[in-house]
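During the first year of the project, the team set up a workflow for recording each protein of interest as an amino acid sequence followed immediately by a discrete structure-token representation. This format lets reviewers and collaborators read both layers of information side by side without switching files. As required by the reporting guidelines, we include two representative entries from the current panel. The first entry is reproduced here exactly as it appears in our internal archive.
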Amino acid sequence: PTTVLEIVEDDEDIEEVEIEDTEVEEDFEVEIIEEPEEEVVEEQIFTIVEEMPSFPGGEEELFKYLGKSIKYPQMAADAGISGVVYVTFVVDKDGKVKDAKVLRGIGGGCDEEAIRVVKAMPPWKPGKQRGKAVKVQYNLPIRFTLK
């Protein structure tokens, strides 16, 4: 028999449903089957590691790359906007730059330009923890200076 739930008003009489009594034998054993827990290994993103990720050629090459890649936004130049855009991103196990975001921006199109340049970076040498390549969060200040 199919039972359908019906919502009734509080003052309406409803028919009591009898539930059959089920007898349980005392010497009846329930077998407990243990299933092995699946290990969910979510890849941790580190902020500090034994060996930090590095741009190909080192920090000096990173600054050269930023210097030649950044196009000063016209809107920022017209408004006289200059300053530092703080960008954060993840360098994954393969050295790819991912999840670039502005931590603190200055506006005028500079934030978007900083993200564009970071996303276009060549692969980095990945960071390492205990000799294994790991994902590392990296913060990079990018200075916009009007000349």
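The second entry, processed by the same pipeline in the following quarter, appears below.
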Amino acid sequence: MDQLKSHLFGSSAPPSWLASLQTFAESIYTNPLNLLLLLTVIYVVLPLVRPSSPESSRWTPTLAEARSHLAAPSDRYTYLPPNHPDTVEWTKYTPRTLAVFDGTGDDQDGSRILLAINRKVFDVTKGKNFYGPGGPYGNFAGRDASRGMAKQSFDLDMLTPLDKPIDKLEDLTASEVKNMKEWEGHFTGKYGIVGELIDESEV
């Protein structure tokens, strides 16, 4: 090593990096355990700094690959729906316009079931067995269900008449407000929010 340094640098002092490299090499030579540690570090770090192959770095498949169950590896997309989901237009509903969506109509819109909680309008059509005609919560279809959810009651007297302003819920207890908020959170996680409930005067 000394002869190599003399050949490369003559009488001048070798650069500091070479001195560090020499110290490092000597530590490996004198203690083989250091070599094992070095190999372990290289094994762990190399995959992090090595460039990925073009194939492995392409996260998003082509349309044909996404639609093919066989072509895509198991760690990528294995299913693409045949059609784009229906888009929903955000709508402001009044109690009267909301009441139409009680699941009793024959056309596409009439068979939809909407209900409101805390001024948010949810599309609960996929839960028609519960919220549709004849369902245990069918009274709430097309209506503001806030008071009923707050009081855990499904009676008709929980509903505000359509010709009256939206229930302000000012007489609810803290516990009842908590009930309503929990139901609101449940519906937010399970059903789509498609609009908001407003008074006739806000139109």
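For the second entry, the following points were noted during internal review. Residues 91-202 form a domain with the Flavocytochrome B2; Chain A, domain 1 fold (CATH 3.10.120.10). The longest strand covers residues 192-197. Both points are flagged for discussion at the upcoming steering committee meeting.
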